Amino acid sequence: MTGNRSRVALSVEDLRVHYHTERGAIRAVEGVSFDLLAGERLGLVGESGSGKTTTAMALMRLIRPPGRIESGRAQLGDLELLSLSDEQMRQARFAHISLIPQGVMNSLNPVMRVGAQIADTIQAHEQGPGGEKMRARVSDLLSLVELDPDTAQMYPHELSGGMKQRVGMAISVALRPQVIIADEPTSALDVVVQKRVMDTLFRVQGELDAAVILVGHDMGLMAQCVDRLGVMYAGRLVELGPVQQLLEQPLHPYTRLLVSSLPSLDRRGEFRGIPGLPPSLLDPPAGCPFHPRCPEAIDGCTTKIPGLTTVVADDDSARIERRAACHLHTGVTS
Ligand code: SF4
Q1: How far apart are the C-alpha atoms of 38 and 153, rounded to whole Å?
Q2: Strand order in the sheet with 211-216
Q3: Ligand 1 within 6 A of 328 CB?
Q4: How far apart are CA 29 and CA 51, in angstroms?
Q5: What is the pLDDT of residues 178-206, one digit of tens each?
Q6: CA distance 1 to 10
């Protein structure tokens, strides 16, 4: 954790992503807003289908038809990512914002040496570097992710899962992005390797002075790794705040149920499920999307959608602000 952490690295406003099907629009992400602070690690958690991965893919502008970004802004320095042309966004990827995708270890080209794959990413963005200069750069990147520089000569099938994940990380950070999005980056690895790869990711983050969005559903991993946590439900961000406070005293009833369903925050804890099913995103219920499952619902919950509002504020630091989308904190009664 480095840098001025009250400066905003990425500001996301009212992001909406819908998938257009014959049966209607699936509202995968509906009005998501948050600030990612410089140097911080922000976690995004939620059940499968909650919109966390779609949010990540939208910020990378990698939503494919029938999906479409309907509206929103994503300001990263001087760049408003959602209004860049396709070519401008291609240039921005890796250089300003980068994704370590789910299953990155399986996305490496099996018939190409590791060093050549890293060099390809650099050459797609920069004119010129080649020969000895490029070899030195690839070596430095492999060292950065704690791999022997000789790994450059190897093919993916010669590497362990953890090593492949590190190569994926080297490719993602090759152009020193300010924002790194890591989507379940270690879910296919065993716990010991997972911890080592995460430690490397965060050391690299520190060296680049980058900010990280960590997408996942392992609350135990989040508790150990992130500074702030955002909880998503039915395409919406329903709670956002410093991770320890959020886990110790959740504001939103959904977060409360999630936390109480965990065996222990000290151990790996994935969602074991809470009573009821998430709503259809094709035809979500009126009012708060959580109301059919909410044990604390009040009258207004079935008719009014709660916005994400500040519940605990501090003028000096956005880091300790706590926000929730729940009428228990807005005082609505009908
Ligand atoms: Fe429960 Fe109402 Fe809060 Fe939704 S708004 S989480 S239904 S109390």
Answers
A1: 35
A2: 97-100, 179-183, 211-216, 41-45, 228-233, 236-242, 322-324, 309-312
A3: yes
A4: 5
A5: 999 999 887 777 888 888 889 999 999 99
A6: 16
117/257 Cα distance (integer angstroms):
44
* 280-290 tens-digit pLDDT: 999 999 999 99
In ligand 1, the atom with minimum distance to the C-alpha of 332 is 5
CB 306 near ligand 1, within 6 Å: yes
pTM tops 0.70, yes or no:
yes
Q: Does the CB atom of residue 327 touch ligand 1 within 6 A?
A: yes
* Centroid of ligand 1 to alpha carbon of 232 (angstroms): 14
- Nearest atom within ligand 1 for CA of residue 306: 5
Nearest CA-CA partner of 235 in 39, 123, 67: 67
**Counting atoms of ligand 1 from 1, which one is nearest the CA of 253?**
6
Domains and CATH numbers, the chain: 8-226 (3.40.50.300), 232-329 (no CATH)
User: Helix or strand or coil: residue 213?
Assistant: strand
